[in-house]
Amino acid sequence: MITMAKALNSGLRKAMEDDPKVLIMGEDVGRLGGVFRVTDGLQKDFGEDRVFDTPLAESAIIGTAVGLAIRGYRPVCEIQFDGFVFPGFDQIVSQVGRLHNRSGGSVRLPITIRIPFGGGIGAIEHHSESPEAYFAHSPGLKVVACSNPSDAHWMLRQAIASDDPVIFFEPKRRYWSKGEISEDPLPLHVAAVVRPGRDLTVAAYGPMVATALEAAEAAEADGRDIEVIDLRTLSPLDMPTVVDSVRRTGRLIVVHEASISHGIGAEVAARVQEQAFYSLEAPVLRVAGYDTPYPPSRIEEEWLPNVDRILDAVDRSLEF
Amino acid sequence: MSDLVQPEPDMVQLLTPEGVRVEHPDYPLDVTDGEIAGFYRDLVLVRRVDSEAVALQRQGELGLWASLLGQEGAQIGAGRALRRQDMAFPSYREHGVAWCRDVDPLTLLGLFRGTSVGGFDPYVHNFTMYTIVIGAQALHAAGYAMGVVRDGAVGTGDVDRDTAVLTFFGDGATSQGDVNEAFVWAAAGNLPIVFFCQNNQWAISQPVERQSPVPLYKRSAGFGFPGVRVDGNDVLASLAVTRKALDEARSGQGPTLIEAFTYRMNPHTTSDDPTRYRIGDELETWKLKDPIERVRAYLTRHAGYGQEFFDEIQAESEQLAQRVRAGCRALPDPTPESVFEHVYVDMPRELAEQRDEFSAFVASVEEVSA
């Protein structure tokens, strides 16, 4: 059993061993090993040319990764916290997502942008954001979120090996959760049924998968058999897995920490009603953050989706 | 004419507006009259491409054009300083540099006609696609330079291996975070990069005073690397200054900021109306500093080039113009479905489904209208 942070670390290590063009860059990723220690020991083992601390400028972290990729490198950028990605947003959306297209396919940007995301750790503001929908909405990018140590390890290796740019979301509140590394990884862009059930489907990703599983356990006590899907890939979405589940259960709740409006949940709901309208026994519900700035940490537990809010939605869906 | 338009006394100039070769102690230039005649050809042909493009826009053949009129000297000088293995990262007005990197003018027209969003393979030309978001390319150049360092292609002494990166931007871009971040990274990493700022005095309607109270080339001092101002209307000085900066970059001596002091003789783009913000006198003053006339004067008076030479260039210019006009009109529209190509290396199923749906819809509409 290893922690998610360690699983990410070993994933990075393996990726660097597999491909000498892989570089790790970001703020404090070198000597310190990252503020979450995800890159711990890598600079010592792979040298300062391959694992390096950057000046403190997120746009430049992404912009120079573009140049490194044009030169043939495979950069893995760490954005220290979710709320700090926005200075790099222009480079991600306007450059990273487009240059392959603009060059008629001759330039490839195999850049992985790691972003610790989500709340629940009692942090100060700008350290608990869930900005994934911005990136999922942007063409040319692929967006994934891991929820457990095994996926963290394998999905990161797969993201780095991808010839397309990948925004890689890591649920920072689960960095210390433990698990085994599977020897039989799923492909990167598929969802996983992590708990089979017959009565209702809960789809979640990142930090909310564990919460959804907890809610499913609790519902079981009331005789409700909840299926839980870990979406894993947010762009592209793996709709066949979700639709197949909804065809069986007839009910869907999507859970995420990000604000409810215009989010991943809205997209999943739209597609499910397009693709499985006659299978639905109830409207697709969303349990998510509210349309407010992230709250001060003393009240974040009330604001965040939790077991009770998911169970409340389960009641509403089943009683519809 | 504002004070800032007056060149600084230490501005590097090797060919006066009257066509007289002068020396500069720091920038000796070993160049033959034959090479200067070659630059003259470059300058004339690039200006011709530009004027044809403006005309094509007026005729409705291009949606837009960003004219380089007045900036040919800076661009040909910088472009001809590059070695084959060097990489250049342009903004969107670098038609002269593109010319030096053998990018076909018609390829550039495609972007402005709306037949492409980029249009070429940067690795073929060692020249990247035009970048519209101001200053973004400076970071790409810095990153590329980081890769050059990691490849051990700096300071080896091998003229075919040592590599420099040259990036272009304007006076307005010096206010952008990306350009300043690129300065920070280049300085901190001692990167093999040359920042070539064409100060054409105007960022659309905003004079350079709006960007900076100090001359732009002095900006680099605070970041920790040298800056130099060159007469951007002097192709020889632009060549000499860029060549030296690139040599230093290749040999491991780090970055340089070059401010090429020039003037945007045309509107910002064909959509702009400069009569709303600048006075005609300024234009008249700069006409006297034309980058082509001074080379012609030199070749005529000091290098023995006669009418026959200039007639030849003129004939070549006419041929090129004809090719540009006909070629522009013949640029094929991309197919509607092509928008889905190369969005990803590995196209997701959901995008393939959108493409198929779109194709089927387009086909059904064509059937109905047929």
Account of the protein in words:
The complex is a heterodimer of chains A (320) and B (370). With 320 residues, chain A is an alpha/beta fold. Chain A folds into 2 domains: 2-179, Rossmann fold, CATH 3.40.50.970; 192-319, Rossmann fold, CATH 3.40.50. Helices cover 37% and strands 20% of the residues of chain A. Chain A is built from 12 helices and 14 strands. Chain A has helices at residues 4-18, 42-46, 58-70, 89-96, 99-102, 132-136, 149-161, 208-221, 239-249, 264-275, 300-303, 307-319; strands spanning 2-3, 22-26, 51-53, 74-78, 112-117, 142-145, 166-171, 178-179, 192-195, 200-204, 226-230, 233-235, 252-259, 285-289. A 7-stranded mixed sheet of chain A has the order 3-2-4-5-7-6-12, sandwiched between helices. A 5-stranded mixed sheet of chain A has the order 9-11-10-13-14, with helices on both faces. In chain A, helix 7 (149-161) links the parallel strand 6 and strand 7 (166-171). The longest helix of chain A has 15 residues, at 4-18. The model of chain A has no long low-confidence stretch (mean pLDDT 98). Chain B folds into 2 domains: 3-330, Thiamin diphosphate (ThDP)-binding fold, Pyr/PP domains (Rossmann fold); 336-369. Chain B has 13 helices and 7 strands. Chain B has helices at 33-58, 72-81, 95-100, 105-113, 122-125, 136-150, 177-188, 219-223, 235-250, 280-287, 293-302, 307-330, 349-369; strands spanning 87-89, 165-170, 193-199, 202-203, 206-207, 227-231, 256-261. In chain B, the strands form 2 sheets. A 5-stranded parallel sheet of chain B has the order 1-2-3-7-6, sandwiched between helices. Chain B has a two-stranded antiparallel sheet with strand order 4-5. The longest helix of chain B is centred in the N-terminal third of the chain and has 26 residues, at 33-58. The mean pLDDT of chain B is 96. Chains A and B meet through helix 3, helix 4 and helix 5 of A and helix 5, helix 6, helix 7 and helix 13 of B.
